[in-house]
Amino acid sequence: MIIEGLKMPEEEIFRRFGNVRKKMSEKDIEVLVVFSGPGSMRYGQRGHVLYLSGYEPYFGNSMMILPLDTKLEPVLETDSASYFPTDCTWIKNQVEAGNHIEVIKDYLADNSLKPLKIGVAGEYSVSPLFFQRMIEELKPAKIEIVSSILEEERMVKSEFELECMRKTAQIAKKGFDAAAAFIKPGVTEADVVSEVERVCREHGSQFFPHHTMVVSGKDENHLEYWWNCGRRKLEAGDPISMDYGAMHNGYCSDLCRPFVIGKASDKQKDVVKILVEAQQAAAEAAKPGVLGSVVDEAANKVMGKVWDIDKGPSGLGHGVGLEVHEWPFIGYQHMEDDEAYRDTVLEENMVISMEPMMFFSDTGDFQIEDQFVITKDGGVRLNDIPQIIFEV
Fold it and tell me: Each residue of 174-184: pLDDT tens digit?
């Protein structure tokens, strides 16, 4: 049986509920309240409720209540606009957006629940004042922040999820092919963005999980404004970096390749060769039981032979799934006051993006980015896009 929404096999839904309830039981959580807001740039804002229900928030928060008791039905509170049809979710018990506290109260009363401990996941999507109201109005014995339940659950991908991600990588490859055929002197960066997104839409991309980045030339000040839909016209000899992703069945890809209009210089080829070697060293290190910081260091060791690592980005990469940036984060463990960036022990079937990058004034800004699934033998790439400079 295939459920609409994420078009998901029924057994995948049972797997998710079973895993989450097992983690709830380990923490003595009797009722889990899950929040998601629209957006996908940070922290899984859209992903938690989407993962458990198939329903994606569009305007305002959505909320889901999952009881530990398997005999009780969960409830889904749709977002403020109720923009998506409710048949995209497999949750039968649905209410329209309103007062979160009243929805929780009604659910507890209707099911004769007086939980000693309520868990909250996705607290970053709601106001801190909300927790004060929960304590004052619900009066549970304890409210505990347990976003780690969903964060850890979503880090390890099922075969269904991996297949979705392989498909979105195939769609994204069409974008690179389109760029290679389209790029020429006189077109703008924005023209390339439009062509790439048009082709990906034609091949089934539902959306683009972050800005489609096309930046050209060697001016570091210009390259820093990668999120602009650039009006710069491409010129013969330009290096170009294209970083973007597609989306299939809710799942994201995040990929980057360099281009050159004309022939790449020997130094440009050498830079890309080092980036590929750095990524491969990281992939070989990316095995179950290894810390993300070890994977980051494997890439830095290769790049450090020719590049001052302190000038580079602050980390090698990040998890990818329903969010383009999700857990685990690789190489950001220096951000000690943010639990999202904790140094994580890798597990089999995690998917991480590895994106080594280097900039030289005479080569331009070059980066290689791919997703890898963690296996006992190391990271295995989820796409077959050539790891080269595309000379166009």
Answer: 999 999 999 99
